[in-house]
Amino acid sequence: MESLCGVLVFLLLAAGLPLQAAKRFRDVLGHEQYPDHMRENNQLRGWSSDENEWDEQLYPVWRRGEGRWKDSWEGGRVQAALTSDSPALVGSNITFVVNLVFPRCQKEDANGNIVYERNCRSDLELASDPYVYNWTTGADDEDWEDNTSQGQHLRFPDGKPFPRPHGRKKWNFVYVFHTLGQYFQKLGQCSARVSINTVNLTVGPQVMEVIVFRRHGRAYIPISKVKDVYVITDQIPIFVTMYQKNDRNSSDETFLRDLPIFFDVLIHDPSHFLNYSAISYKWNFGDNTGLFVSNNHTLNHTYVLNGTFNFNLTVQTAVPGPCPSPTPSPSSSTSPSPASSPSPTLSTPSPSLMPTGYKSMELSDISNENCRINRYGYFRATITIVDGILEVNIIQVADVPIPTLQPDNSLMDFIVTCKGATPTEACTIISDPTCQIAQNRVCSPVAVDELCLLSVRRAFNGSGTYCVNFTLGDDASLALTSALISIPGKDLGSPLRTVNGVLISIGCLAMFVTMVTILLYKKHKTYKPIGNCTRNVVKGKGLSVFLSHAKAPFSRGDREKDPLLQDKPWML
């Protein structure tokens, strides 16, 4: 009996039969196990089953944590970064990109070789050998000329031969992608890209795994493994940006009353799957203004009451899909498909949701050969509406006389008004005429009454043209206005500098008033709007106020007639 067992062992060895089962792709590429029905219903075009055998002699398998990983690359470890444009709508394409991150001071050149970066390291030996791996010198062009054993290493882990290279550009890395019980092999340089169609894929999160090998003589060794989660969805991936002028922080979903909010819908469709689909947008702002339906992805809406509102948006479109099978007889029954996509139908949007004049998708618009499936996307947000500063205006600019000892400086008084909520802080930025280079910035708290009248005094260094920005803010809002201010050169002998020291007789009052009015009018600093900011220029009233200041020492009794002087502004 013992001799019989020995003969059997000898025959097995002579026949070359392995005593240990060969590794398969699923044993090498991770621990994700997929049942048979998922493999059958998630077929990827051009991909192979991970039940195939893996060539362990040409592509050795290292377990995670083994010491051999430390020596897999000269100068350190290579990291692989895997990204995708997930989430993907069922039926669209999803793209995966793997980028290799080499150790410090290493990069890939135009020929695919790995070289040291210049001026990155000071090692003296780099001057003689700039290569980390010079794969061009050891090119295998001659191995493609015959089918001898010399070219047997030019194949993938499943034994399929490499595609013939074009020119001198070499692909020195082998990428193996694995998902849903299937794998895809590809040659590449420091990055690789793979796209798959999701028409038959199961809705939900899935895992993509990638292992990368590099050339090592006439074999390959692993240098990095990476995996990432991607999502297949039957809902249109959408995101809504909300913007409002004067809103201090748009990310907190708190906005201002009586100012329009601009809504912009962004559809995540990197593969352009929906390019030729009609898309409708149904807006419900939650303030009892009704349902708005349009085919435009932007819309603005103004809330006129304070409070909290539930904003709801529904996006609807019809996409190409497989035609439904014939309706089974009542006596027959079918089991549901493992995929959670809705059944293809020729349904149209509900007429009750369509405004007058909206062209819905009729059955006659759809070819009998191409069925379409309705897809929907949803966005919800809770919006809070509060009071805020709605508008800021400069209504007056006046020159302030200063001592003759400071001829190069100018002081200006700005009268600023606002509408809406009462500001709690004010900022002034003085810049060059292009409003790009800031020269001075001053911010301070303010206490303004309900009339919101503010006087701001600012200094200017020398003559010239300046851009002045005024910003008034509170906790929820930030409103601004801008102006260009022209500061002319100062004349030391100008009556403007000495007007306060002149004694004037009653008989010369009329002439004095006229002269001061003309001088002040010339000194009045003109400005013009910058950009799209809201600004008002008060022409007649500004001159009247200047004249009132000139007549002030002689007509104290008439000052209460000027509204600006009655409402004494806050001085900043």
Automatic annotation (TrEMBL):
InterPro entries: Ig-like_fold (IPR013783), PKAT (IPR045219), PKAT_KLD (IPR046846), PKD/Chitinase_dom (IPR022409), PKD_dom (IPR000601), PKD_dom_sf (IPR035986), PMEL_NMB_N (IPR059017). Residues 321-354 are annotated as: Disordered. The chain crosses the membrane at residues 502-521. GO terms for cellular component: early endosome membrane; melanosome membrane. It is a single-pass type I membrane protein. It is found in: Early endosome membrane; Melanosome membrane. Could be a melanogenic enzyme. This is Transmembrane glycoprotein NMB.
